């Protein structure tokens, strides 16, 4: 497999750009092809079967573009479709999700401890974090809470005011999340509210943002498979299945700089 092939990254919309940003920072020689399924967001409230159908369609596009890796930068799609995608993609590309690297991190650090998880209804309802952690270390307790108001709030850029702080606080006060040593931000949108979450816990609880953990795991996997690109030749591409000026504006929130989006429908 050629090292110079791009890395495909996908999410339901713009949230996965937090992961793409961490990857482009850590691995600047890699060409990224990002796909945001903006026509079908949010994924967090959809059934596993629907998320699987969208995910496979997106994988086809990324494979056609010759991606050497498909990074599922969405917890909901990682929870609902990872195994299916891996079977579908086979040996054509490596498939990485955003859950496994965080599970490794937690298992290495929080034996015998109680930790928390917030995410979409799909991610929390799937129980995948608890399952994966318990398989490796049954002494770790996880309290999970679905926090469905957070994604629309963040997508609207409505996350740095008293009302959003009150919503975040109301969720974090839930008894499921009492006495935790760490909180997993189990949705790729949530790095944007990390400062508010950190402020709530006043440093007593580690707030685990998966984007950097995932980027560093991707680095190790590329290195191990001798797939690290030597020099970037082509520019990054940002594809979306629906386009509006607000999607383009949102790229700045999630990626740090505004990036031009190209429309690529899932079904022509
Ligand atoms: N970014 C997605 C995730 O990580 C959530 C957004 C959505 O519900 O589509 O789960």
Give an account of the 3D structure.
The protein is α/β, with parallel strands linked by helices and 268 residues long. The chain has 2 domains: 7-97 and 212-263, 3-Layer(aba) Sandwich (Rossmann fold); 100-210, Rossmann fold (3-Layer(aba) Sandwich). Helices cover 44% and strands 17% of the residues. The strands form 2 sheets. The chain has a 6-stranded parallel beta sheet with strand order 4-3-1-2-9-10, with helices on both faces. The chain has a 4-stranded parallel beta sheet with strand order 6-5-7-8, sandwiched between helices. Helix 1 packs across helix 10, helix 2 packs across helix 3 and helix 4 (100-109) packs across helix 6 (128-136). It is globular and about 50 Å long. D-glutamic acid is lined by residues 11-13, 15, 41-44, 74-76, 120, 123, 151, 187-189.
């Amino acid at each position: 497999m050629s090292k110079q092939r791009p890395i495909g990254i996908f999410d339901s919309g713009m949230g996965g750009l937090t992961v793409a940003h961490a990857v482009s920072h850590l691995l600047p020689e890699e060409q990224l092809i990002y796909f945001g399924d903006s026509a079908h967001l949010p994924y967090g409230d959809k059934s596993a079967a629907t998320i699987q159908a969208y995910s496979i369609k997106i994988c086809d596009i990324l494979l056609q573009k010759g991606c050497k890796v498909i990074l599922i930068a969405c917890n909901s799609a990682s929870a609902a479709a990872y195994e299916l995608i891996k079977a579908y993609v086979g040996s054509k590309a490596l498939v990485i999700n955003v859950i496994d690297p965080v599970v490794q991190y937690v298992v290495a650090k929080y034996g015998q401890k109680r930790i928390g998880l917030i995410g979409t209804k799909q991610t929390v309802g799937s129980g995948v974090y608890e399952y994966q952690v318990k398989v490796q270390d049954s002494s770790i307790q996880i309290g999970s809470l679905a926090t469905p108001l957070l994604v629309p709030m963040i997508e609207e850029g409505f996350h740095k005011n008293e009302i959003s702080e009150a919503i975040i606080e109301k969720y974090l006060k839930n008894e499921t999340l009492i006495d935790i040593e760490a909180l997993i931000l189990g949705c790729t949108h949530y790095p944007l509210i990390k400062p508010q979450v950190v402020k709530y816990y006043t440093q007593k609880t580690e707030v685990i943002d998966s984007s950097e953990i995932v980027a560093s795991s991707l680095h190790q996997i590329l290195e191990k498979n001798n797939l690290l690109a030597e020099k970037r030749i082509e520019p990054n591409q940002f594809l979306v299945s629906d386009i509006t000026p607000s999607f383009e504006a949102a790229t700045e929130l999630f990626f740090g700089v505004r990036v031009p989006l190209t429309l690529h429908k899932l079904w022509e």
